[in-house]
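Hi R.,

Here's the input for the guanosine-5'-triphosphate complex you asked about:
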Amino acid sequence: RRGASLADFAEKIGVDPASLVQVLFHLGEMVTANQSINDETLQLLGAELNYDIQVVSPEDEERELLERFDLEFGENEGDEDDLMPRPAVVTVMGHVDHGKTRLLDALRHSNVQAKEAGGITQTIGAYQVETEVDDEDRTITFIDTPGHEAFTAMRARGAKSTDIAVLVVAADDGAMPQTIEALNHATAADVPVVVAVNKVDKPTADPAKVRGQLTEYGLVPEEYGGDTMFVDVSATKGEGLDELLEAIVLTADAALELQANPEMDAQGVAIEAHLDKGRGPVATVLVQRGTLHVGDSIVAGPAHGRVRALINDVGESVEAAEPSMPVQVLGLTSVPGAGDAFMVVPDDRTARQIADQREARKRAAAQAAGARRKTLDQLFEQ
Ligand code: GTP
Ligand code: MG
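And here is the predicted structure with guanosine-5'-triphosphate in place:
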């Protein structure tokens, strides 16, 4: 197991830790009993003592942990007969200040069924928009991401939990570093891209140039014979919004079969989480399968709890959240990390046990990192 010490290993194979220290010493490795050992040292020791060492990856470890409780994440969609169409999850990405948030605002206000702005919670970065394509009501889930270079990890996570990426490029600025970085994340995650060429109202806007630039990166516009939809929009003037929504729906219908089982216990991912003064830990989660209910016992990364309240994207308290719905969860005992998976488990006790195990693992990993640092420090002191 990652982060295990030499003493842990000695205990596992039933020998005196001191003897292992000696063996390693003769192999030219200075390791104390309480020090965590790295994979190579472990392999070395294994070879010397004729043990077959298998290093367990964090993913395997996590799978094994859930298996102990007869649970699994993601693999099982439950009864096929229960599968229902679900809204597309669309992540809005692009370079800083190219108008991602403004565009989302515009899309929400153009929404005929939108509730009044008064109760809108601005901290939640995920929203649902309703639109009509070919006389059919369609819901789309949008996740906003920051364009600042510091948020690479967030864009990578966003690309992973999404069905479609909308790449926002300001027509006056053109493709910039985070435009390309976002595009790379989407490509790596095998997510189809729709390009929103924004700020076309500006006198210096050059939408054709944006098309040319992105063509060089493999995003060839349909009008040039490629298969990527480019839509000219102005978030401030509210232009091109219906066309953008239509392009998203068409992309979803052409490339993806979006279904989920609303009947099973909910699973999904935490998009954002923070500690609120009055409400305690608040996590915005995206339900990916199943239905999340008030009263459910959940575990989210190393956090756990019982769902006390669910708040939707317009600040209303709701009883349940269905697949593709973003919702704020109240009732966790600590703050999960953004990107942590969450799942409903049978009871509070199970939730606590799983969370405790993850917390212990996290602590061990941090300790191991600390121990490594410490030995380095000692080295430099000499
Ligand atoms: P980050 O979240 O920091 O990455 O930025 P963002 O991409 O969300 O940009 P944001 O929506 O905050 O917009 C940045 C600026 O561009 C704001 O001043 C907007 O008013 C302006 N802006 C956005 N869309 C348009 C547009 O269509 N036309 C014009 N003229 N200005 C726009
Ligand atoms: Mg923004």
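One thing worth noting: The two ends are 31 Å apart (CA to CA).

Cheers,
M.
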